[in-house]
């Protein structure tokens, strides 16, 4: 008995469907792999510290769920200096984003709109600047800042995060994609270089500015070595340092520690989810011209 062959269109549709299903399953698996540790940390923050590792061996449903959740660990955080550290981190991160975008956008504009001798070399230096780990230069830079009397000041905490090579690279790539016709039209209307930057480049680059701002925010929010070197008093302590200080030498309350970790994670996570559309758009246009 002869079999009826499927039309070529249906075969292609079937193959496309199979590929889509497997790609979706792979994406879901990777997402779950990243979500499981975060979920376990959240559940552990709702348990007493003594029960944190009780259900890890062997694994069971109680490892990832609890029938008696409690906010006691979060209430205990009110008696610590974590909240002041979180406010300090928010202040430092927000000021870094505002000042950093002004500096990085201006630098990216100069590297994209102006043609001058040595522009390629200068841009290569910018690329190399974000390839060098900041921790490698943190100690000598901290000694320099101490000589300038910037230790235990918010200015000392903010300054290193303002000039970010990755943000300059992202903004320059986006600026290069702006049509030359718009620039020429602006010149015909009597705009100078600063007017072209503020009236053409900046309004058209909102996704790239938001993406660069998110990078600057995360750079400051998760920084540990530099705040540890510069913010040594309680007035200028930042979130990651305050979190590390919660680990005592002989006793660690893991319930409170995980509750503090969740707060430090959820704040940037909420910001990223709120601006993810602009961030994805800015990254997707990188390299296009």
Tell me what the structure shows.
The chain is an all-alpha fold. Helix content is 70%, strand content 0%. It is built from 14 helices and no strands. The protein has helices at residues 8-45, 61-64, 72-76, 82-113, 119-131, 135-147, 154-158, 165-176, 180-188, 193-204, 206-221, 225-230, 239-245, 254-284. Helix 4 crosses helix 11 and helix 9 (180-188) crosses helix 10 (193-204). It is globular and about 70 Å long. The termini are far apart. The model has no long low-confidence stretch (mean pLDDT 86).
Report the sheet-strand fraction.
under 5%
Shape: globular
* Structural class by SSE content: mainly alpha
The residue ranges in which pLDDT falls below 50 over 5 or more consecutive positions are: none
Percentage of residues in helical conformation? over 70%
Main β sheet profile: none
Strand and helix order: HHHHHHHHHHHHHH
Specify the number of helices. Answer: 14
Number of strands: 0
Gap between N and C termini, in Å? Answer: 58 Å
Whole-number radius of gyration?
25 Å
- Average of per-residue pLDDT values: 86
């Amino acid at each position: 008995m002869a079999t009826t062959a499927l039309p070529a269109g249906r075969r292609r549709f079937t193959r496309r469907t199979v590929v889509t299903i497997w790609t979706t399953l792979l994406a879901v698996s990777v997402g779950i792999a990243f979500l499981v540790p975060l979920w376990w940390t959240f559940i552990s923050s709702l348990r007493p510290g003594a029960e944190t590792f009780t259900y890890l061996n062997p694994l069971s449903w109680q490892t990832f769920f609890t029938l008696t959740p409690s906010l006691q660990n979060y209430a205990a955080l009110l008696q610590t200096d974590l909240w002041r550290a979180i406010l300090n981190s928010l202040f430092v991160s927000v000021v870094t984003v505002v000042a950093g975008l002004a500096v990085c956008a201006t630098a990216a504009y100069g590297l994209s709109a102006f043609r001058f001798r040595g522009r390629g070399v200068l841009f290569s230096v910018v690329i190399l600047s974000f390839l060098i780990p900041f921790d490698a230069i943190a100690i000598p830079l901290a000694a320099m800042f101490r000589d300038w009397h910037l230790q235990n000041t918010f200015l000392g905490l903010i300054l290193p995060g303002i000039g970010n090579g990755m943000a300059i690279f992202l903004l320059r790539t986006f600026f290069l994609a702006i049509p030359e016709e718009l620039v020429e039209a602006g010149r015909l209307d009597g705009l100078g270089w600063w007017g072209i930057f503020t009236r053409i480049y900046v309004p058209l680059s909102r996704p790239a500015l938001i993406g660069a701002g998110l990078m600057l925010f995360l750079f400051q929010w998760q920084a540990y070595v530099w705040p540890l070197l510069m913010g040594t008093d309680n007035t200028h302590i930042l979130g990651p340092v305050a979190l590390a200080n919660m680990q005592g030498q002989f006793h660690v309350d893991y319930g409170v520690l995980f509750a503090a970790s969740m707060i430090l994670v959820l704040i940037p996570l909420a910001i990223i989810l709120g601006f993810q559309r602009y961030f994805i758009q800015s990254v997707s246009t990188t390299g296009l011209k």
